[in-house]
Amino acid sequence: MSVGVPVRLRGERTSRTRAAMGGEMPTTGPLVDSFGRIHTDVRISVTDRCNLRCVYCMPEEGMTFLPGDELLRADELVRFAEVVRGLGITSVRITGGEPLVRRGVVDLVARLARVGFEDLALTTNGTALAPVAARLAEAGLHRVNVSCDSLRPERFGQIRRRGDLARVLASMDAAEAAGLSPLKVNVVLVAGVNDDEVLDFAAFARDTGRVVRFIEYMPLDADASWRREQVVPASDVLALVADRWPLDAVAVPDGDPAPATRYRFADGRGEIGVVASVTQPFCGTCNRLRLTAEGSVRNCLFSDDELNVRHVLARGGGDAEIEMLVRRAVWAKRAGHGMDDPGFLRPRRSMSMIGG
Length: 356
Description:
By secondary structure, the chain is α/β, with parallel strands linked by helices.
C-alpha cells in the first residue's frame, strides 16, 4: 500500500429507492430496509452506567443514569434476542455504558449464548474485565473489544478521568488467556489529544498481535463539544502508518458490512483497522440495529428515531408483535447518517445512553 491510499468508501447500496424495493415493508423473510440493506447484527446495551468519564463521551460530573427498574430485565433481553435470532440476526455485541458494571452480566452472557448466535462479543473499557474474563469465556462469549485511547499512563488518566492503564493492559492479557480472541483494541483519536500516538499503537499491534482499530471522533459526546476539526481522518492515519510500515489492504467480500476497513502489515506482523464514520461513512452497507438499555430499538447511531419494545415485552406481547416492531424500525432506516447535510442535528442522546 502506498502512502495516502484512501479508505475504501462503502455507500453505493443506498442508491436504491423505496420504489426499487416495492414500496411496502416486507412482513416475512430477512430484516431488510427500504434501500436493500439486510440486517444481521444487533448491539444490545445492558446498562447506561459507566465507571469512567472519558472526555469524548461523558462530562466529568453531573451524568444522570437510568434507575435500575427502568433497565430491561435479563428475561426481557433474552426474549428480544430470541425473536431477532429468528429474523436472521447472527451477530450480537453486548455494550453499555460499561456492560461489566451490570450485575449478573456473566449469567446474561450465558443465556444469550444459548440462543445460538454465530458471533457473541462484548465491548468494554477493560477496568473490570480481568477477574471475569475466564467466566465470560466459559459462559459462551466469543471475543472482546477493549477501549484504550493512550499507552501513556498519565495521558490515559487524563482522557478517562478515572481508571488505570496497567489494569486495562492486564485485562487484555487475561482475555487472551481465556480464549477471548482475536482481541481488538479500540482507539478513539482526537486531534491535539492523542493523535501523536498513532505509531505507538501501530507498534503495539505489531508487538502483541492485537488488532488495533483507529476510530474517528464522532459527535456523540454528552458535553456536545465535538468539533469537526478534532476529527483525525482515517486516511491520514493510514498514510502515517504506511510511511513507517508498509500495509496491504485485507480483501473482503463485496458489500461487507463490517465498520472497520482492515490492513495487514506487509511483513506479516499483525493488523490494524480504521473506522471512518465521519470522513468516509459506510452507511451503504450498514447491517446494524441497536437496543438501548431501557428498551428502545434504534436503526442508526445518529438518528433520534426510536421504537420502544419494552412496553411490548413488559405486558407479555407475542413474538409476532415484537417482530413487527423490529421490522418497522429497520424499514424506517435512512440512507445515511447525514452528518454532512446542512440540516444535520446531532442526536439528543450521547453514545453511553445509546449503546455502541
